[in-house]
Specification:
By secondary structure, the protein is an alpha/beta fold. Strands 3-2-1-4-5 form a 5-stranded parallel β-sheet, with helices on both faces. β2, α2 and β3 form a beta-alpha-beta unit. α1 crosses α6 and α6 packs across α7. It starts with 5 loop residues before the first strand and ends in a 12-residue tail after the last helix. 42% of the residues are buried.
């Protein structure tokens, strides 16, 4: 009997990446979870990612420290205020200050490096082009461009390997993501999405990520099991 194919899964500890991990497992991949600790103000997600990796029995998890706070340029990696209470329809109109410059390119580059070492051809990432707050590195055309880069930039690619970046959530609403996660046994109480959690780890209930998440649960007729300071 052949071994299952290996896949590197970018796991932040949030709702989207956890559902993506569940999908990769369901599709029969041996999952290697990569979590980036990049100086984000919502570093509580790193501990969430550790718990989720254990729950799903990944083959290995690497928590990779990098320090994007040295660059700043985002409310997630500096002391700039996180936007609160924005209307949902306004979130995709402009790129918000919570955009971390080139973050997904950096993350996918680390995932690609590990995939090449593992001999894996598959990378999973939970980007979403529907409820995505205007981030340019969550679009399908960006993912297609990165796959081309992966073939050109690696020894494996030059020798004929093809890297596939799986984005199973890219066209789903938050409500659809939650429904699929529940079908696959995701415990969303373990996940955290808030950009600006309070010291006790409770979600603020007012940032873009919280508002999108709360709407997703509401559209499923559910209460989010994650703790909130305000909702």
């Amino acid at each position: 009997m052949s071994s299952p194919p290996k896949a590197v899964v970018l796991l932040s500890g949030g709702l989207d990446s956890t559902t993506t991990l569940a999908i990769a497992k369901h599709e029969g991949f041996a999952c290697y979870a990569l979590t980036l600790e990049y100086g984000q103000r919502h570093a509580v997600e790193v501990e969430a990612a550790r718990q989720i990796a254990l729950r799903f029995g990944v083959v290995q998890q690497v928590v990779m420290p990098i320090e994007l706070r040295r660059f700043g340029g985002s409310a997630l990696t500096s002391d700039l205020p996180v936007p609160k209470d924005r209307p949902l329809e306004a979130m995709a109109e402009t790129i918000p200050i919570t955009y971390v410059p080139a973050r997904n390119t950096i993350f996918l580059a680390f995932a690609l490096s590990w995939a090449e070492v593992l001999g894996a051809s598959d990378i999973f990432v939970g980007v979403n082009a529907l409820d995505y707050s205007g981030y340019p590195d969550c679009r399908p055309e960006y993912i297609e461009a990165f796959e081309k880069l992966a073939r050109l930039a690696t020894k494996a690619g030059v020798e004929g390997a093809t890297f596939k970046v799986h984005t199973p959530l890219i066209q789903w609403s938050k409500a659809e993501i939650i429904r699929r996660g529940l079908e696959l046994g995701v415990d969303f109480a373990l996940t955290t999405s808030c950009y600006d959690p309070i010291s006790a780890g409770l979600a603020c209930g007012r940032c873009d990520a919280c508002l999108l998440r709360l709407r997703g649960f509401a559209e499923n007729g559910m209460v989010d099991p994650r703790g909130y300071a305000q909702s």
